[in-house]
User: Fold Ribonuclease Z from Agaribacillus aureus.
Amino acid sequence: MGFELKILGANSAKPAYNRNQTSQLLTVQNELFLIDCGEGTQLQLGHYKTKISRIRHIFISHLHGDHFFGLIGLISTMHLQRRTTDLNLYGPPGLGEIITMQLKVSGTVLSYPLHFNEINPQKPSCVFENDKITIQTIPLIHRIPCVGFLFREKPKPHRIIKEKIQKEFSLLDMVALKNGEDIKGENGDIIYKNGDFTLPPKKSRSYAYCSDTRYHEGIVDQIKGVDLLYHEATFLSDREQRATETFHATAQQAALIAKKAEVGKLLIGHYSSRYKDITPFQTEAQQVFENTILAIEGETIYIED
Amino acid sequence: MGFELKILGANSAKPAYNRNQTSQLLTVQNELFLIDCGEGTQLQLGHYKTKISRIRHIFISHLHGDHFFGLIGLISTMHLQRRTTDLNLYGPPGLGEIITMQLKVSGTVLSYPLHFNEINPQKPSCVFENDKITIQTIPLIHRIPCVGFLFREKPKPHRIIKEKIQKEFSLLDMVALKNGEDIKGENGDIIYKNGDFTLPPKKSRSYAYCSDTRYHEGIVDQIKGVDLLYHEATFLSDREQRATETFHATAQQAALIAKKAEVGKLLIGHYSSRYKDITPFQTEAQQVFENTILAIEGETIYIED
Assistant:
């Protein structure tokens, strides 16, 4: 079952050079998670043939417009499509009020239940959990309250080798095998050793989304060893001072975080509109952390298990 | 000096078939007026190479999202561009509050003065006037308070024929000629007849923007004889009942209004997302009013004087 990230927009602040504002679509085992929602996100989703009716959870990192101005439009379009499924929003205080006010003035009573889940931006907390995944907030350091999101697949079951299943296995035996346990007799003796009937569990994959933030080593422990880290890189390092002043990071700083956190792969984006050519971002980051790629609209990053 | 209308978006409700939501840019003698501002309008303005710093007046017909969800993004981008020129918004009650709240949560103190001019949607009133143009509201009938906008050039001066200017003409004589008056001697006798020295004034052009509205003959007197009428046509006439229920109009109804108001040209748009092919809108309207054109993104309509 897939774990893939689609880039819908990767520019910062204002759109430029046909680069849209920030939005990403993460699909984990057929469940869609929309992360941030800059203006025009619904157009991007349409462009990439995503059925927006499948999106049930939307995560907003902070209330700068380039991360959420597209949300009200998306919510409205879901209503016009006569959606009936619940939609869950996760975002900082204030988001619910903004959405509610805009629905009110347009006389809109949504066709579906909309749930606001207010995030405390001060400390890491689990904001979502189902049988496959947990989602934790990552407090970041920005001009206004801002969090990242850490998506982690839960541990997976041992994989039973079908050809080796014995007729006498009960359902409880099968559960035990999936849990990695041996099958024991009434007296507690091992009858069947787990390793003879199963393969080890597939890897539990993880993705950390960190935008927007000043260089902040405080996040390293929390994101340690994730398969994929998205870290904002608004500037190149010749503008490190500007980055610090505006509570943003450089490509080099993003790579330093990736290196310290020993992540599998680094994805950078949130490019300032001052840069037409973004290839220097990759060059700069790769000098510190080789496995760095650029967030490019329309591209999909797959994480294998 | 030009009088031209650029179509930035002409779809209703939700974007579809690469058709954006409603927005138009009217340029009158080098002054830019933005009319409605659906999501993605700033992207469209960028796409068509409009310098958004030149926009000083934005008119919002009503608070349905497809007409204003792009406004906050545009306002923010102007700020990020370090604009210092005043920006004037004209819209129904509630608009100012929505914009103000979003600026507040993002911690944005705009780099330029933003003025909210609240419109009374109940009766026609002049909301803007300078030395070249007046702009009046046109009360429409929609599900929520909604107005159209009537742009009228003021009467223009008589055009003095340079070759015929006499040495003895004073500045006051020139003013008299431009005003269409004869030049008289101290005893009140006509010395120079205006018609010998001037050409008649150029035509004062006019544009009426009417979206969204149910079929409403009450607007006919106000828009009588305008050069160009934009009238919404959300549906074809086989869905007239649906149009009435949703306070929208059909292409045929738009054409009926154009005919009764004896306008020069009819422009229709605000197509429902249910229609992929919009050519039947023109066919239907032309059966009632021949000089009908379709609002198509990126196209410009020029009105000659």
User: Anything to note?
Assistant: Chain A is about 20% helix and 25% strand. The first helix of chain A runs from residue 41 to 47. The CA atoms of residues 57 and 88 of chain A lie 5 Å apart. The two ends of chain A are 9 Å apart (CA to CA).
